[in-house]
Amino acid sequence: xxxxxxxxxxxxxxxxxxxxxxxxxxxxxxxxxxxxxxxxxxxxxxxxxxxxxxxxxxxxxxxxxxxxxxxxxxxxxxxxxxxxxxxxxxxxxxxxxxxxxxxxxxxxxxxxxxxxxxxxxxxxxxxxxxxxxxxxxxxxxxxxxxxxxxxxxxxxxxxxxxxxxxxxxxxxxxxxxxxxxxxxxxxxxxxxxxxxxxxxxxxxxxxxxxxxxxxxxxxxxxxxxxxxxxxxxxxxxxxxxxxxxxxxxxxxxxxxxxxxxxxxxxxxxxxxxxxxxxxxxxxxxxxxxxxxxxxxxxxxxxxxxxxxxxxxxxxxxxxxxxxxxxxxxx
Amino acid sequence: xxxxxxxxxxxxxxxxxxxxxxxxxxxxxxxxxxxxxxxxxxxxxxxxxxxxxxxxxxxxxxxxxxxxxxxxxxxxxxxxxxxxxxxxxxxxxxxxxxxxxxxxxxxxxxxxxxxxxxxxxxxxxxxxxxxxxxxxxxxxxxxxxxxxxxxxxxxxxxxxxxxxxxxxxxxxxxxxxxxxxxxxxxxxxxxxxxxxxxxxxxxxxxxxxxxxxxxxxxxxxxxxxxxxxxxxxxxxxxxxxxxxxxxxxxxxxxxxxxxxxxxxxxxxxxx
Lengths: 330, 271
What we know:
- The complex is a heterodimer.
- Chain A contains 13 helices and two strands; from the N terminus they run H-H-H-E-E-H-H-H-H-H-H-H-H-H-H.
- In chain A, 72% of the residues lie in helices and 1% in strands.
- Chain A is an all-alpha fold.
- A two-stranded antiparallel sheet of chain A has the order 1-2.
- The longest helix of chain A has 39 residues, at 238-276.
- In chain A, helix 1 (3-29) packs across helix 4.
- In chain B, helix 1 (3-20) crosses helix 3, helix 4 (95-111) crosses helix 6 and helix 9 packs antiparallel against helix 12.
- The longest helix of chain B has 37 residues, at 57-93.
- The two termini of chain B are 15 Å apart.
- The mean pLDDT of chain B is 85.
- At the A-B interface, helix 1, helix 6, helix 7, helix 10 and helix 11 of A face helix 4, helix 5, helix 9, helix 10 and helix 11 of B.
């Protein structure tokens, strides 16, 4: 096997192993609920019949794993093998059939709920990335070109402030300014095209700060390269040098950061969606899942978000290798 | 040291002092509601004004510093300790131990966006300060482990390590006496940025209702309570002051971390 092929096989193997572990962790999360999940969902006043019916409907009456240590008649913990008749196995079989179980509250299939909410989250994440790139590229180029000057220092401090301001501070402040005071935009919801502006800025702010720093150091590095001297020597304007040559090479590490930041965006979207009542996965997770103790929905959302993140990271890695042949070799 | 990290250090020291002396600085009970005094703007009696139930925002922000710093310090200490041990073992023994730890375990933890894993853990364990700290440690240690592993891999090739081995020193002695003291410098940078991250995560989880339950004066809880439209309209200061407290604390730790990084790695200066 060639080293390149071996590397690819190894990566795919690792990817499968990681996905398997992540799914397994999510399936056993429900075992961590203190006490009985059925009581947690139905409440203390539920009758034993209601509890039993609920457990049977959601497969909670079955053993959690292939084996366990139940307490026997003498009060001793004994090892017991349950075989394939267990919840872990059930969950896997269901997932492979595109079934994430049913909501504990409404009996709706969780998979359907996720498919319904998914586009809104992706829309928000893409809008946030666009906001971030639109801010970061010009600012990063200006800072990099003027390295060490007052402008550079001011932009660097601004970037650090941007990184330090969390979405749940920026978001409500934007609502205060643009919805409460000026009345230009709606404080929440997803009805008109303009409704995405405030959530996208909120979610994109921290990313734009991180990207500005990346673009800046990238531009500084590339400006020192020989090809820049050649381009300048042949009489290209500074503008053409920076935007045609430097940015083209300088954006390679930025692409990687953008891909790797998608996870942070997806996690940040949970908070942003809550602030703006944006009906995506985050709101489903926080309001319908965590808020109503609907553990099936929580499992489904965590699974959907982390799978998206893992796939995005893998794609980013492949794109990066393709863009920069030097990495392919090492 | 650059100017920004000095500013950061000063802010952090102020916050630590405020957290320690909170009962002497705050002049109101953090839980005492007074509906007659709700939505009061900042004044001599209430420096930061009052919130929707008439509680003194200044006192709550002051006591909020305690929660933030307590969570931050515990999370960073535990994560750094666990991460250092695991990272050192992975880097020192390499071979299959390293393949399992850095090739598999690290990747599992990096496969989740950190905040999501914390949210998931607390969602199932139930809200509360201890569970929040536990969740943040679970997502925190891997950053330190990766860093220390890389450092140990580098340091263990140095001549003085070979010399110690030639003199008959055992694995544990080599690792703890010779390698680790020379490998943990970058840990300080990571710890400083980790404090920023922990303070931010605590506030985020409390904001989502998964951290310290109200009426505890966590900054995240205060922001969550201040962001409904009627409170925003009547008392924007209820949002601004805890928001500023979070931003300043996080900024200060980021300033320190950035400054230390430049100081420890001169190649990074001015970049």
